[in-house]
Write a structure and sequence with these properties.
With 258 residues, this protein is α/β, with parallel strands linked by helices. 47% of the residues lie in helices and 12% in strands. The protein has one domain: Rossmann fold (3-Layer(aba) Sandwich), CATH 3.40.50.10490. Helix 1 packs parallel to helix 8.
Length: 258
Amino acid sequence: MADDVLSQYLSAARAALTEIENKGLSAIRIAAARFAQCILENRLVHVFGTGHSRMAVEEMFPRYGSFPGFHPIVELSMTFHNPVVGANGQRQAMFLENVQGFGPVLWRNFATSPQDCLLAISTSGCNAVTIDVALEAKRLGLYVVALTSVAHSKVSASRHESGQKLSEVADVTLDHFSPPGDSVVWIDGLESPVSPISSISGCTVVNLVKAEVARRLTEAGKPPYVLTAACHVGSERSKELFDLTYDDYRKRVGVLYQ
């Protein structure tokens, strides 16, 4: 029923996943192939997002079922939401998301290589900082992949001084098919919709990329160390894999500070 709020949300989430399956897999395979080659060359796929896109960044690494080669970058000033008001409040975070010139400042911290890649995540694809980070990555020679909602981006205005949107900067765009505005549940008597779905669809795309990269690495004879729960491999092997994974990650990110 249209007025069943639970059905509304579940239907919208299923629709987004169906769109990913029907329209998004080709781009996912293209991005994953480039990411796998980057990791095989002992370089890094940097993953950047602000706001609630942080969830998709950390979905990539580190968590169970994840592996080294991805370098998550989150700035606490733009992702630390739980205080809401006061110091480190949401107003400050939203203001900082649209400060111009952040990209060169961020990348100056790292010794990147044109062999590196960037996965830049923004549902709107329009906030200034993520676009700025992607533009500077392109200037440095990195291959840039955007994870965004194309539909949301089309009805939103870029907040970057260049006027560009994230999808216009990227070499390839991964669409997670959340609708404009993201929230999908309408309730009689309530002016605004509630319950966004980009967390579901965005993290789905992230895990599809992760799966395809893992397949390619394994096929190339370089299976990754994976953070694995004890229920899969036993407690001793699980602990061993944690140590191997974190040691491998430490070695890989070491190239950023040379």
